[in-house]
Amino acid sequence: MSRFWSPIVHALTPYVPGEQPKLTQLIKLNTNENPYGPSPKVLAAMQAELADTLRLYPDPNADKLKAAIAAYHDVSPAQVFVGNGSDEVLAHAFQALLKHNAPLLFPDITYSFYPVYCGLYGIDYRTVPLSDTLEIRGEDYRQDCGAIIFPNPNAPTGRLLPLAVIEALLDEHPDQVVVVDEAYIDFGGESAIPLVQRYPNLLVVQTLSKSRSLAGLRVGFAIGHPALIEALDRVKNSFNSYPLDRLAITGAVVSFEDEAYFQQTCQAVIASRETLSAALTELGFEVLPSAANFVFARHPKHDAATLAAALRERAIIVRHFRQTRIEQYLRISIGTDAECGALVSALKELVTG
Amino acid sequence: MSRFWSPIVHALTPYVPGEQPKLTQLIKLNTNENPYGPSPKVLAAMQAELADTLRLYPDPNADKLKAAIAAYHDVSPAQVFVGNGSDEVLAHAFQALLKHNAPLLFPDITYSFYPVYCGLYGIDYRTVPLSDTLEIRGEDYRQDCGAIIFPNPNAPTGRLLPLAVIEALLDEHPDQVVVVDEAYIDFGGESAIPLVQRYPNLLVVQTLSKSRSLAGLRVGFAIGHPALIEALDRVKNSFNSYPLDRLAITGAVVSFEDEAYFQQTCQAVIASRETLSAALTELGFEVLPSAANFVFARHPKHDAATLAAALRERAIIVRHFRQTRIEQYLRISIGTDAECGALVSALKELVTG
Fold it and tell me: What share of chain B in percent tops pLDDT 70?
């Protein structure tokens, strides 16, 4: 507390990201990073950019990246917004598109940054409970609201909503923006991006941090009607002209050009997820069906916080949320098969020992 | 305009940065970039970071960078905030520290992003005219206000305010935050950073874009009392957990370790500035005394917009602001001696031809 703070600062409850430990010996299954590195072509292209030209500002509009994303997703560059990770893209979306006279709706169990953005921008919100099986139900959103946002697949559950349900939601809310946060869509879901051509109220947000193995580079993007993109651009250009550095723009562009590597690593993660889910089920865990690069699981006889602490003693970190309804779940990122194997061995000791 | 926009978006007038031309043949003296590349040690360190580890998130707190800046400037890490360029640092400062019940004060001629931030965050402001010689006068700020911000040296004039005047301002406003934006301080000014130990109301903002030749990497920072830094951290952690990517953190850290290169390039820019100022004066220009990596100059017999357009036809770009009181000035970034020489030759033709 300080008399120098703007009044809003006193009430902020900032987001707390998963731990980024400084030790490198840990098996790190807590922040949904990709176990495989970025495409070698991405690294090679960035290499070429690592030069005296770093003295020059980047393109403030990142036109090359917008063009690459537009070509990849079959939309026009005017339908693309890019930012410093999807967290920044989401922040701008909250400020530019989600503050209205009626409350914003999002699930009670979801990405925990959403209420934080609401605090930062003074946005009124109402949470909509997931079903008993921790699923989003489209019909629960049939209520007065200013806008809607949810991740698909949802986090931290990993559960996927079919595109038909999203389309119904869009039809039912023609005057409200619906943001679909697709951070994990490439691990088995169907993207809502094609729907932007028919729904001027749809904004789809994606990231290069997960499926494109570039969490360390900070690139996210949004796709929607040019009017929605213009709102994001106005806010971005009133905040920071150059959010993406030269290396990030270059690396991100090339990431969309190496489709073979992208498909191969996504398929490897999906295969490991299915193997891990089966092994956890074998150990007595209840594992939610996941379309993401993590699983969400609980054991009927073992306390989740205790398990997480015991795993940590064995140098394995997973994520545990102290939140009503999910406090008995662990969220486990998909690692390499060796990492998943080490996790299963440790859990076997803990739950059968 | 769109019914989907949050109401605030309609009224925004975004900042327009200097042109980043896609042509590489131009002599680019319009956005105050350093004519020399970053330290070779910076590039080498980033090289080592260009690896599979880009799949992992960066340290959200950039502790290594805070430690490097703290050590360099002889403060504690708790007195350091870092962000995605000083524009992002300034944006957070406006939201976290400059919104109060009384208006924010800044010069009428200054960094044109300031009123844009005010629009974004709904901050009431009042501009304080520069003197007839385009100088900030401390006594003009003796008025009721919520906070004060100005660049030192000021932009786009390049004029430096002595530290004694800043200290008097701090004494006169013990209950208001005073932000000193030192983007250009390393080109001959005296930083206010040592004053943060005595003034809990002082925040100093700097960037690695100019004197450290890293405009393409996007790193800025602020130094102040830990209570001011906490406000910035709260806002940052409610906006984006990871604003600095792994390469930016690494490059920035090493930039503070190569003092010899830093001093050498700053001195070269200062020497070129003095040579250029003399040559422009020789051509009849009135050149304001500059402590920055640019000069601000007008010719009593030649229209500035016409000169800028004529230079552009000769593949030289400088910055011209269509703003009352300064519409007859050109802001010219200091290039290499060859670039400055080409500029002087072109101007010689134009003003004596």
Answer: 99
Same domain flag for B15 and B62:
no
Distance of CA B98 to CAs A106, A240, A266, B95, B117, Å?
Answer: 31, 17, 45, 6, 10
A235, A255, A275: which is the final residue of a domain? A255
Answering whether pTM is above 0.90, one says: yes
Minimal C-alpha gap between B23 and chain A (Å): 12
Are A219 and A252 a contacting pair, CB within 8 Å?
A: yes
Per-residue pLDDT reduced to its tens digit, A186-229:
999 999 999 999 999 999 999 999 999 999 999 999 999 999 99
The alpha-carbon gap from B243 to the nearest alpha carbon of chain A, in Å, equals 7
In which band, very low, low, confident or very high, does the pLDDT at A73 lie, cut at 50, 70 and 90? very high
Whole-angstrom CA distances from B23 to A59, A295, B190 are 12, 48, 36
* Residue B256 Cα, gap to closest chain A Cα (Å): 16
Place of tokens 């984006």: B240
Q: How much is the pLDDT for A18?
A: 82
Angle between helices A337-352 and A259-282 in degrees, nearest 10:
10
Range of the domain at B247: 55-255
Could you tell me the two tokens for B210? 């100019």
Neighbour count for residue B40 (Cβ, 10 Å): 12
Mean pLDDT of chain A: 96
Q: B142 and B68 in one domain?
A: yes
Q: Which chain B residues are Cβ-neighbours of A38 within 8 angstroms? A: 52, 54-55
Count up the domains in chain B and report the number: 2
The gap between the terminal CA atoms of chain A, to the nearest Å, is 49
Q: Report the C-alpha dihedral over residues B294, B299, B305, B308, rounded to 10 degrees.
A: -50
Question: Are A82 and A220 found together in one domain?
Answer: yes
The H-or-E segment that residue A298 falls in is: strand A294-298
Position B181 scores a pLDDT of 98
Q: Using alpha carbons only, give the angle A341, A347, A352 rounded to the nearest 5 degrees.
A: 125
Shared domain for A128 and A33, answered yes or no, is: no
Q: What is the pLDDT of residues A1-54, one digit of tens each?
A: 799 999 999 999 999 888 888 767 899 999 999 999 999 999 999 999 999 999
pLDDT at A309: 97
How far apart (Å, rounded) are the C-alpha atoms in residues B234 and B257?
29
Question: Chain B partners of A227 at a C-beta cutoff of 8 Å?
Answer: 2, 4-5
Tokens for B244? 């600095």
Tokens read off for B311: 């230079």
- In this complex, which of B8, B216, B245 lies closest to A56 when CB atoms are compared? B216
